[in-house]
């Protein structure tokens, strides 16, 4: 780049950075908080229903996880969860329904490439590294616990 171009680019970057709208951080945090809390309340409500119909307490967590992943996948499939994610940000990503969304979204995006090279190959593009590092770190912690337990 020539010196003139660098000066012009620097002026443009400065002008551009001054005109970028600032995010409304407090409102975004509030929306993330209440939407994430609402997702958790729905999970608790489902757990209470399972408890009332007689499912043992030690199995309720498994059933609730299955139902919440299913709901997250269905809502992603019909396009609602993406709108919720735009509104709530991290409030929709952190609960287990966000995990379902991270698996279903890439699978839907690449379905036109077929089931093997599209859906199956792209399904874990986002969730795959989370699973790999989550499982890997749990194995390391388990080994450390085994050798260092008191």
Give a verbal description of the structure.
With 150 residues, the chain is an all-alpha fold. Helix 6 packs antiparallel against helix 7 (115-122). The chain has one domain (3-109). Helix content is 82%, strand content 0%. The model has no long low-confidence stretch (mean pLDDT 85). It has helices spanning 3-19, 25-52, 57-77, 80-88, 90-93, 96-109, 115-122, 127-148. The longest helix is centred in the first third of the chain and has 28 residues, at 25-52. It is built from eight helices and no strands. The radius of gyration is 22 Å and the shape is extended.
Rounded average pLDDT: 85
Q: Sheet bearing the most strands, described?
A: none
Domains (count) = 1
Low-confidence stretches: none
Q: What's the N-to-C terminus distance?
A: 63 Å
Q: What's the total helix number?
A: 8
Would you count the extended β strands for me?
A: 0
Radius of gyration: 22 Å
Coarse morphology: extended
**Helix-and-strand structural type:** mainly alpha
């Amino acid at each position: 780049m020539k010196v003139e171009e660098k000066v012009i680019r620097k002026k443009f970057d400065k002008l551009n950075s001054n005109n970028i709208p600032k995010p409304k951080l407090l409102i975004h945090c509030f929306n993330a908080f209440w939407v994430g809390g609402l997702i958790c309340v729905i999970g608790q409500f489902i757990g209470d229903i399972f408890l009332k119909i007689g499912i043992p307490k030690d199995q309720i967590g498994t059933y609730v996880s299955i139902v919440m992943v299913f709901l997250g996948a269905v809502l992603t499939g019909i396009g609602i969860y993406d709108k919720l994610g735009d509104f709530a940000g991290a409030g929709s990503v952190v609960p287990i329904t966000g995990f379902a969304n991270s698996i279903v979204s890439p699978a839907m995006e690449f379905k036109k490439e077929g089931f093997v090279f599209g859906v199956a190959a792209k399904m874990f593009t986002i969730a795959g590294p989370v699973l790999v590092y989550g499982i890997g770190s749990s194995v390391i912690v388990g080994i450390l616990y085994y050798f260092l337990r008191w």
